[in-house]
Amino acid sequence: MRPSRRAFVKWMTAGGISVSLSHLASAAGAPFAAHETLPGRGKFNPATKGAGRVDGVAKVTGAKLYASDFRANDLPGWPQTTSHAILVRANDATHVYTGIDLARLKGALKPSVVVTAADLDRIGTQAPEFYAGDLFCPPGKTPLYLGQPVALLIFETFDSFDQTRLALRDGSFVKFGEETGPVMAPDYGSYRFTRVAGPSPEKPDVYSPLQAGWISPRKLQNAALPVWSPLAKEMPADYARAAKHGEQIRAELAADDASLLVLDREFETQSVDPMFLEPECGLAWYSGKGGNLELVLGVQSPYEAADSLAFLLAKAAAPYKPAHINAQFAHVGGGFGGRDHTPFILYVALAAICFPGKPVRLAHDRYQQFQGGIKRHPIKMRSRIGIDRATGIIKAFAADHVLDGGGQANFSANVATVAATAAIGIYDIPKVDVTTVALHSRGVTAGSMRGYGALQTLTAIEVLIDEAAGELKLDPIEFRRRNALRQNGRTMTGNPYIVSVRTPEILDRLEKHPIWQQRAQFKSASSDRLVGTGVACVTKDYGAGADCSLGRVELGADGKIAIFCDHVEMGNGIGTALANRVGAHLGAIADDVSIARVDGYEILGLVTSGDPYTIDQKTQDAAQRNPRWVPRISSATSASVGAHVGTHSSAEAARVIFRFGLWPAALELWRIPKTDSRARRWASATWQNGQLTMPGLAPLALPMLAATAHARGFVTGAIAHSFSRWAWSRARFALFGEQYRAEIDALAIRRGNGRFERINRSSVKFPPSDNNRIGTAYTSMCGALVRVEIERATGSLRIAKAYSVLECGTALVPEVVMGQSQGGFAMGVGYALLETLPPFEGGPGGGDWNLGRYLVARGSDLPLRDLEIEMLKPLTPDEPPKGMAEVVMVPIVPALINAIFDATGHRFRALPVTSSLLKGVLA
Amino acid sequence: MTTLSLTINGRKHGPMDVRDDLSMNDFLREMLGMTGTKFGCGAAQCLSCAIIVDAPDGTSTTSPTCVAPAVNFHGKSIRTVEGHAKDGELSVLQKAFIEHFAFQCGYCTAGFLGEGQVLLERLSRNPVPREALEQTIADALDGHLCRCTGYIKYHEAVRDVILADSTRYLIATK
Amino acid sequence: MISDGPFKTIAVIAALASSLCAAYAASETTTPALASPESFANIGETEKRSAAIFTELGKVLTHPRCTNCHPAGDRPHQGDNARLHQPPVTRGADGHGLEAMRCNACHQNANFEPGRMPGHPDWHLAPREMAWEGKTAGDICEQIKDPARNGGRKVEDLIDHIGKDTLVGWAWKPGFGRAPAPGTQEQAGALVEAWAKTGAACPAP
């Protein structure tokens, strides 16, 4: 049973354009959705026995799956021929852009269409705020950043496109005039996080962001950096109050106090590229004259993508304004954050809008992906830490972070706050003051990337802690243990975590591990090689504070299960995690798992308003009176939310099917009347080998239960929406004579073979708007040990052995958790030792960067047979899954830097530490 | 333009006229619609575009397709990811990749699959001692980039296929 | 916005001299020339003249186009800044790469411009004893005269090897994004010839 494909569901509208995220009904050929629904009914499903992923067969057989696999002739109903576009970008951001010179293109090499800033003015496009700035740099202006687009060239045939891209690849046809220097623009956000704990842990904080809200200094002068002083004129009162506490902390750190060890250190991180293997691409077709705009895209944020496209064209002039936008989303070939909120999709749409009637493909090659793709923020950090020498207890911490956000705002402000609130790592520090600012620069735009600011600041703190332990002559693990935040301790924003905090356990594992135990003997064993051991332990948030998911689960009369989810499969195994989580309720693994689906939930009739991050309580209270209102409809697959959030709605939908479909069916088959006390013991039933079992009763196979549920008109399908702001929304629904309570805020059910019907919630409790003052309440922990060997003569570094220990609650697909950990290790090694991009001239914005010049970790860079990963068992059998895809990367980086110090005696304070730098300090 | 005929996964294609500067990658993906062979870097750095080339003497090698003109494959016989399964039955290595959760996003999978398959066939002709196995696998796969997995599960999958049929792939040691 | 042929929409068409194949052309124009053997005629002493001619030839021999594949170790380098070759390949038994990564898997019979991939039918690494990486022209000179380290060649054989060998000749036609070796292959060959005929003296190391 597939969801209805009523064309162009008016699910949301912007500027009079209806936006559907549905799929065109098609009589002939496999519709796009069929390619993306895995493994498909009747096909081999490796996940059934836990022996593979639901997308396993598709991925080893080269099935069409990724956005880059589709051409117009793969899509039913589309014209057969694909046209191709080149997105031309500026490779200079300090001179006036004067235009492009295509004189070298003759005959067939001439583009059919050239789209420039003037065309967009005529069309009347508008750039979404997230991508503020000119979509194309107009002649006469200095480009806002390196890699800013200046034009789209569209070619009707592949051959002319292919030959032209060769003719234009030197970039010299993009012309510049007089030198202006880079464009100056305001910063993207500046914040101060200050906390002063009470006299004892039980006492309330003297000051915290949770109590007082998040604060920013007022922009006072036209200078590159904010003025942080509370004494500055016109500072808002709330800012001045925090800043006074902050300055007091800094004064204490600066005071001449012999009892306090104070370290004042800088640390600097570099720009890197997510380097997902599938470069960004998209396919679009505009029928013209106010008709339909169809797109095939691959992003981590499908709903945002559709929303941005609607905004882009909402005020377009008549022939360019589509009546409908139908966006379809594919599996993605890696994301790592770099496909969350990407402006690339806007240019895919523009290519189609400007070449009506013809499907157009826009695809980056790798040079272009380096030139235009989202990067990780470089951060300059200065940290001061004060530790009581007698007890080894950390008393105070102050830091200043300056992030380079590159050319567009994107997520820079959020990355700055996540970086800041992560800055004290696993530690319990009573006095903290951190300022953070994300600056505009002419660099390529930085945005979301695995680790999201926390990677940078956690590396700095773990390197600093290592140094402090050395100064105090304390064992680094013992020092960490003394200062680790306990289960109910307060984070820097003043709230405790609401999930398990297992730092002590992780530190114990690290301490007992042979790599740590044998560190001294290995260090002294070698002569031509320096050997060193490093440790690090971190905690990393997961979730973004306004996360949601949509899930739809259908159970056929034959017991076959289909799942639809709005989250995206980017390799993280969400499809398999969905199947497993639903399977826990329904006793079988789904045959159809359809991800990145933002259609199929229309019956919920969801509406939203306001910004979930800034809404006030009164507005939220008023809005929630509408039973169809939710703070947000769909959010991106990012921030390690796949397991925790992405699967949540589908799991809750499955729970409803069990409770009101399979359980009543079981009672019938067991001939247990509703009055029997056993009728309420659904929680005692368990699935074993596809059979529902209860002590003393005959096991019942799922197909029999499903057939009974269908025959008797019990619940056989459910659609749910859930929302989390550091806590789930909870609601009650009147179902079959009872008030059903669940951690969802919208529900629809299907009885038997009927249609889905919405069940309006009878009451709802959304997490309070003040939760927006929390930095994070969800966190997971990971510790790492590495032993490195460095050749004295060459500086060549080999990782001899490594160990990583993590906790992530219940692992939905343990093999994927292991794989993510191994992959996080590899990316950590690349970040620490190999990867770097010059930020400005000579960097990727020039359009001449590729792999080879940019080094990511290969197999030969890694201890493939000497990496041990340990996953702690969940604290309780029902501990919910915790996000882990980011945290596993983080401790690898400081552990390596600490191991290098142990080996060489040199403490590196900037990344990456390349072999030539090592050679330099060993010379 | 040059006339091109070749055999792909046992099926003859051509003769057809192709531009001399058309890459093999674009020939497969744009002209034939065979998109199982991926495009990653266009510079022979990631090898997600690699295919198998079968020589007349029964040996095989992998070749990146992004840096080679299609016309260089005239008269050759190649295998792509679409051709490993026979009559719907997955190859041993395909099954091992699935069972080991070897890939995540899967974009590099076609390249690793081709390289691993060539290694298996090479070892079946020229077995190596058990103690050389891991390094042999590491050397064979090192040209291929994977950004998701950290490589370990790919290596384990190839190794386990070999160990499961050690008389075929390894020199017997007493 | 749809143009019917000429580019109505191009806002600016700067007057520009031939920019076709600009980078290749540009890199060629920036290539330093080689002095001719005749230009050393003013050096009276034959041995000094010979050494000076070799020093001129040294601009070629120490160029990354040459040293990248005459590496000091077993791994070639690449690019104008001579970074280590990626993917990581070593010379292997015959200088043509490893069993699982042969040179000609990527380096085909000729340069393939769309992939920026250099090529030649005999693409391979110079033998280990012919390592030039990091050496001065004087070092290379001594080495290149030594049959044990020059592939068993007589000095006269080097005239054709450097002046006519097509793999050597690739250094002057390296394709997009790579600076060619200085001068032309003919000029380099002429320098070798003049050097040999003047007694093949070496500059001070």
UniProtKB/TrEMBL annotation, chain A:
InterPro entries: Ald_Oxase/Xan_DH_a/b_sf, Ald_Oxase/xanthine_DH-like, AldOxase/xan_DH_MoCoBD1, AldOxase/xan_DH_MoCoBD2, AldOxase/xan_DH_Mopterin-bd_sf, TAT_signal. Residues 1-27 form the signal peptide. The keyword Heme does not apply. The keyword Signal applies. Residues 512-597, 768-837 form the Aldehyde oxidase/xanthine dehydrogenase second molybdopterin binding domain. GO terms for molecular function: iron ion binding; oxidoreductase activity. Keywords: Signal. Residues 243-484 form the Aldehyde oxidase/xanthine dehydrogenase first molybdopterin binding domain. Coiled coil: none annotated. Gene3D superfamilies: Aldehyde oxidase/xanthine dehydrogenase, a/b hammerhead, Aldehyde oxidase/xanthine dehydrogenase, molybdopterin binding domain. It holds the Pfam family MoCoBD_2. PANTHER family: ALDEHYDE OXIDOREDUCTASE MOLYBDENUM-BINDING SUBUNIT PAOC (PTHR11908:SF123), XANTHINE DEHYDROGENASE (PTHR11908). This is Xanthine dehydrogenase family protein molybdopterin-binding subunit.
UniProtKB/TrEMBL annotation, chain B:
Residues 2-84 form the 2Fe-2S ferredoxin-type domain. Coiled coil: none annotated. Gene3D superfamilies: 3.10.20.30, [2Fe-2S]-binding domain. GO terms for molecular function: 2 iron, 2 sulfur cluster binding; metal ion binding; oxidoreductase activity, acting on the aldehyde or oxo group of donors. SUPFAM superfamilies: 2Fe-2S ferredoxin-like (SSF54292), CO dehydrogenase ISP C-domain like (SSF47741). It comes from the Bacteria. Signal peptide: none annotated. This is (2Fe-2S)-binding protein.
Automatic annotation (TrEMBL), chain C:
This is Isoquinoline 1-oxidoreductase subunit. It comes from the Bacteria. Residues 1-25 form the signal peptide. Keywords: Signal. InterPro entries: Multihaem_cyt_sf. It comes from Bradyrhizobium hipponense.
